[in-house]
What does this fold into?
Amino acid sequence: MAEIIHLPENIISKNDKQAFESFGAHAIVHGRVARWHWARDNYGDEVFQLYRGGTEDVLAVSITRDSELDTFCASDGAGKLITSGALGHVFTELEYYLSLLHEDTPPPLA
It folds into this structure.
């Protein structure tokens, strides 16, 4: 009997994964987050997570891909949508969002 394999529907490409990890490293260097992490949601889809440091490791942002809409969605630690759209747009919005969380002077939005 053959085993049935269920692949996640919202697969993130290798190039997009590299962009996520680069953005995570950028956020760490600027002190806006302490670490990044790849996880899976309840449906088996990949989730890129950014955590704030401090006395407790707090989830700051989760980013997923919606394959039906062909868009990326960023949510805060409580699951509230921050932004969605093309990956570059999401990163720009998150740069602003994370700078506000870190109480920096946010970069101007384009």
Remarks:
- The beta strands are 35-40, 46-52, 58-66, 71-76, 81-85.
